[in-house]
Amino acid sequence: LHMGKTMKDDLTVVAKYINKLYPPEFNVFSIYAELYHNYFASQAKKNAESHLEDKDIYLLLSWVHNFYPKDMRKDHALAMELDKVKLGSLLPSSLSKELENKYLDSEEVTVKNSLSRCLDKEIQRWKEDKEPEKLNGHFQSELLGIFVIQSIYSSQKRAEDISKAVGEELSRRLLKELPAFLRSYRDAFEDFKEKSKKHTYYKPILIANINNCWNFR
Q: Where exactly are the transmembrane stretches of this chain (predicted)?
């Protein structure tokens, strides 16, 4: 953030005031821009090659795909001059791709584990001597029906915020995880139906799960 703000503020000063003090052939703005970019890119590469936590990978990819090319380089005071310089990306494409794969692998596992924990909690609730919650007057599981959908949607949205390609790849992966989760849900529900017919709230639990199916569709 500090480097980005410094680069943006300094280049704005160069574009507005310093550039016009030199003959055009000196390419003053281009020299400043290339030096700032090369330093910024070297720091980004150094960070990318070190051990990064998942949140750091996400942040670095956000800089590579969004903050740097869109927020900084498309700034109204700089865009015209920067378009002439052709600075390129903050990271080499191979390194950027490596980070994207790490992020996708991690996010896929996170969502998968989150769905699994959610189902375990739901199964545990079936075993309790409690009536299911009602939403808009109908039995339904807010934990299962809403949490699962929100988990997948928010994960897709975060990935799309990095780039369209990353978002599409994560969506493709999660579309494999969702059927796997639904199969586990179905199997657990069938087991409950067979073994828990004497449960105090057997019928409301069945209704709640049938209502969940509408949300999942």
A: none
Check residues 160 and 132 and name the one with the higher pLDDT: 160
Per-domain residue ranges of the chain? 1-91, 96-215
Sign of CA dihedral 42, 45, 49, 50: positive
- What angle is formed at CA 154 by the lines to CA 148 and CA 158, rounded to 5 degrees? 150
Phi then psi dihedrals of residue 134, to 5 deg: -115, 135
Q: Is the pLDDT of residue 63 over 90?
A: yes
* Residue 170 · residue 159 · CB < 8 Å: yes
Separation CA 127–CA 100 (nearest Å): 41
Q: What is the pTM of this model?
A: 0.85
> Is the pLDDT reported for residue 130 higher than 90?
no
* Position 208 pLDDT exceeds 80: yes
Q: What percent of the chain has pLDDT over 70?
A: 100
- DSSP letter assigned to residue 163: -
Sequential DSSP letters for 73-142? TT-TTTHHHHHHH----SS-HHHHHHHHHHHHHHHHHHHHHHHHHHHHHHHHHHHSS-PPPEETTEE--I
The rounded distance, in Å, linking the Cα atoms of 178 and 175 is: 5
